[in-house]
């Protein structure tokens, strides 16, 4: 293998700044996408456990729709197809008016996609709580909404916390797909720099270390939180 | 914009089918390679010899912390450097998928292996089988049966993930649709078509897995 190493590209302007801005976009996409995914996912998870059959069906249809189309195809649908099928004014605004349109498209796409996976976790969490708890809540005079708010959801979130950590890390990794619609996040940036400088190994090693470092930090932080919020005496799946 | 007529559809059908063949080939090859690697990794990960177990765990956790896209780029640039000549996007993507899926399959297989009761290993060893024989003849067949639904779900995920080879220009189904759409200034119907095709295939597959899961539990 003939390869001339040159680690100095890392510190050469403007590349150092580019890598940092790439990391920043990656984190921003993941966090903003997470806000959508967590809110909508909670709604979906609740909707799949309520008594109304119509609500359950709508939620299930959403889940199947977003789960069975590849994420990259969804990205293209939001970015290339949506502006064309909307009324002309709205489409033009998406294409030219909206600042950072690629960023927001990626956020919405990842948020709506990840919501499905969070919804399934929330549903599993709610269903893992003994039915007696909901009945007891109703018997003490709480309304159905209050039972969800004060009994089912707080318990469910505690139970599914490890799974939520996994889902956050997965939206963080999936944010790399934003490069296909032109967001220069971490993967896109390092690829761009590796093409400019012909130093792909240094660049991809840098990206690998940065992704690994963020994953490790999040996992370690959540591990501490999980230790404090775990139900005493309950079996939890050991996260490897 | 070209209109999406039946005549037009018949015209582009061969190109789309070629793309779907590439997608299916890529899925099947990554599945076979990834599963083989995953089984090896899983056996190493539960090995009593600590350094081996730690090395396997490190590999699995490292690969699972990286975006698949980054891995595809890694091998797209690295494989030609290592072998000294261009190998094309398909080969490097395939290597990336196998190494990546190996890490995921490892965790599935490991969970499957650990779902087999410990007594089965002891019984195998007590009856005079060696450890590899016990693994191959007693534990793996039971474990594979336990994990089949999860494996099939992961295979569907893999099928969807192969669309990512778009970024290195492999002409899979999505790339074919994209190329045709760009050529004919017809991106909207072609992306919609791609979405519908993926949706129908994946939904059918995941509904079948759900049926299997219900009818098949040990």
Provide structural commentary:
- The complex is a heterodimer of chains A (240) and B (218).
- Chain A has helices at residues 15-47, 53-67, 71-85, 88-97, 101-127, 131-139, 144-174, 186-197, 200-229.
- Helix content of chain A is 76%, strand content 0%.
- The longest helix of chain A is centred in the N-terminal third of the chain and has 33 residues, at 15-47.
- Chain A is built from 9 helices and no strands.
- Chain A is mainly alpha-helical and 240 residues long.
- Chain B is mainly α.
- Chain B has a single domain, classed as MetI-like (MetI-like fold, Orthogonal Bundle), CATH 1.10.3720.10.
- Chain B contains 8 helices and no strands.
- Chain B has helices at 6-45, 50-64, 68-83, 88-115, 118-126, 131-161, 173-183, 187-216.
- In chain B, helix 1 crosses helix 4 and helix 2 (50-64) packs across helix 4.
- The radius of gyration of chain B is 21 Å and the shape is globular.
- Classes of the chains: A mainly alpha (240), B mainly alpha (218).
- Chains A and B meet through helix 2, helix 3, helix 7, helix 8 and helix 9 of A and helix 2, helix 3 and helix 8 of B.
Task: Give the topology, please.
The complex is a heterodimer of chains A (240) and B (218).
Chain A: H1 15-47, H2 53-67, H3 71-85, H4 88-97, H5 101-127, H6 131-139, H7 144-174, H8 186-197, H9 200-229
Helix pairs in contact in A: 1-5, 1-7, 1-8, 2-5, 3-4, 3-5, 5-7, 6-7, 7-9, 8-9
Chain B: H1 6-45, H2 50-64, H3 68-83, H4 88-115, H5 118-126, H6 131-161, H7 173-183, H8 187-216
Helix pairs in contact in B: 1-2, 1-4, 1-7, 2-4, 3-4, 4-6, 5-6, 6-8, 7-8
Shape of chain B: globular
As a percent range, the share of strand residues of chain A is: under 5%
Global geometry of chain A: flat
Q: Kindly state the number of beta strands of chain A.
A: 0
**CATH architecture verdict of chain A:** Orthogonal Bundle
CATH class of chain A: Mainly Alpha
Distance between the termini of chain B: 55 Å
């Amino acid at each position: 293998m003939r390869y001339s190493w040159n680690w100095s590209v890392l510190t050469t302007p403007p590349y150092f700044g580019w890598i940092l801005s790439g990391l920043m976009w990656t984190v921003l996409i993941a966090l903003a996408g997470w806000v959508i995914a967590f809110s909508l996912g909670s709604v979906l998870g609740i909707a799949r456990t309520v008594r109304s059959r119509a609500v359950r069906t709508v939620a299930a249809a959403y889940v199947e729709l977003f789960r069975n189309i590849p994420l990259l195809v969804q990205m293209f649908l939001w970015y290339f197809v949506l502006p064309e099928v909307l009324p002309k004014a709205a489409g033009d605004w998406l294409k030219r008016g909206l600042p950072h349109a690629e960023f927001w498209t990626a956020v919405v796409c990842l948020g709506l996609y990840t919501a499905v996976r969070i919804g399934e976790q929330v549903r599993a969490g709610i269903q893992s709580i003994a039915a007696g708890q909901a009945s007891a809540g109703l018997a003490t005079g709480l309304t159905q909404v209050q039972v969800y708010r004060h009994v089912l959801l707080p318990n469910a979130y505690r139970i599914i916390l490890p799974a939520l950590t996994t889902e956050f890390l997965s939206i963080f990794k999936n944010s790399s797909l934003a490069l296909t619609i032109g967001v220069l996040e971490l993967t896109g940036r390092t690829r761009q720099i590796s093409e400019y400088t012909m130093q792909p190994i240094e660049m991809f090693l840098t990206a690998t270390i940065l992704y690994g470092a963020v994953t490790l930090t999040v996992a370690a932080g959540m591990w501490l939180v999980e230790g404090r919020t775990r139900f005493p005496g309950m079996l939890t799946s050991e996260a490897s | 914009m070209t209109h999406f007529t039946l005549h037009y559809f018949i015209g582009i059908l061969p190109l789309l089918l070629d793309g779907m063949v590439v997608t299916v080939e890529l899925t099947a090859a990554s599945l076979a390679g990834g599963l083989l690697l995953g089984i090896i990794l899983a056996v190493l990960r539960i090995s009593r010899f600590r350094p081996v177990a730690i090395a396997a765990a490190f590999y699995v956790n490292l690969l699972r912390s990286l975006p698949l896209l980054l891995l595809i780029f890694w091998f797209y640039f690295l494989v030609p450097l290592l072998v000294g000549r261009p190998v094309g996007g398909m080969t490097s993507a395939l290597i990336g998928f196998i190494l990546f899926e190996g890490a995921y399959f490892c965790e599935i297989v490991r969970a499957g292996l650990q779902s087999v009761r410990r007594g089965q290993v002891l019984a195998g060893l007590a009856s005079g089988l060696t450890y590899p024989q016990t693994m191959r003849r007693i534990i793996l067949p039971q474990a594979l049966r336990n994990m089949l639904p999860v494996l099939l779900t992961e295979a569907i995920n893999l099928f969807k993930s192969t669309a990512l080879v778009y970024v290195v220009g492999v002409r899979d189904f999505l790339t074919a649709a994209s190329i045709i759409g760009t050529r004919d200034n017809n991106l909207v119907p072609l992306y919609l078509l791609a979405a519908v095709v993926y949706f129908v295939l994946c939904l059918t597959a995941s509904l079948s897995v759900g049926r299997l899961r219900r009818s098949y539990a040990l």
